[in-house]
Amino acid sequence: METVVARLSNGGGGGGSRWCPTPEQVMLLEGMYRGGLKTPTATQIQQITARLSLYGRIQGKNVFYWFQNHKARDRQKIRKKLMAMYQHQRFLPSYNSTCYPTFPIQVVGAKIEENSSCKSMVNEWNVDQSCKKVMCECSFMTVMMMESTSPYSTRVPPKTLQLFPTTPAPTSTSS
Amino acid sequence: METVVARLSNGGGGGGSRWCPTPEQVMLLEGMYRGGLKTPTATQIQQITARLSLYGRIQGKNVFYWFQNHKARDRQKIRKKLMAMYQHQRFLPSYNSTCYPTFPIQVVGAKIEENSSCKSMVNEWNVDQSCKKVMCECSFMTVMMMESTSPYSTRVPPKTLQLFPTTPAPTSTSS
DNA sequence: GCAAATTAATGATTTATTCAAG
DNA sequence: CTTGAATAAATCATTAATTTGC
User: Fold this and answer.
1) Any B CB within 8 A of A25 CB
2) Which CATH code is given to the segment(s) A20-92?
3) What's the pTM?
4) What is the pLDDT of residue B84?
């Protein structure tokens, strides 16, 4: 496949929009992380950058960000598992609360139950048959939530662009 | 080439597993894309869906995915072409396990002062699309100051560069 | 011509990275 | 430093093209 080839897009110097680590870079970074290095100092970042630049274009900020996020997401995974256990405990007979603690939506990977709060949002998209298992996934959920609520967005430019610049009007248009 | 029957598989409500756009829908979507609409908002997706539903069964998520994929594959084509021109050097050396430590080394002492004059150093980064204004954070400065030279492998000294020397980091000399 | 087999396109998901606010 | 939101990259999965042998 083109997997390996695509990863070399940044290394080719074409001016890719963001750093795309090569497998070797990822291996080395993960090795260091597992070795105990969680928050490298500036000196360490410089040395790591110099070493990894042999395998592709890389900058110090990439190394810095990588460790920041890797550490953050490591904690996130633990949190998710704890949350999943807590969700599971809700259905135990000894725990009879019906209110959700702090999590407004379903966990990643959780199936949509018939009584789930996701159901209403899923219906906004007229999802009937293709709702297989993970409709409440993060990326998709963002769109669904924007759909059902007021679509204020911090990133989307507020320019009023025309939806249909060209209207071919195929055949049967009674509008 | 008679595929009319096949295209009607989802429009007729047969319950196809995935959306199969009609030629009219594709025409309209491509027209919008060429017109400059690359990342529609939720509201736009809703309107587009309503408009395109005249030509066949369609859902908001289909429109959302279409733009995501179309944009991504546009970039992919460009990347491949640029890469084809540039892919000539630098094969990846084999992985060597001596590159990273096997026990945690947390070098302390590479602290940095909250000096000012951030703006001049911001330019030392290849600030293109990211790192807009929060660059003047203390932690960032440590990385920024070390990124002054070219990050590409042409400058990297080929000598044996140990990532984590046993000697303490000499960055504390600034005090 | 035609279907099984294979390949190419592309819709749909998942994962990784960036951005920004707290 | 933490976290949520948004996006892009990578991947999976299914459909359409096409090849191939009959």
Assistant:
1) no
2) 1.10.10
3) 0.42
4) 63
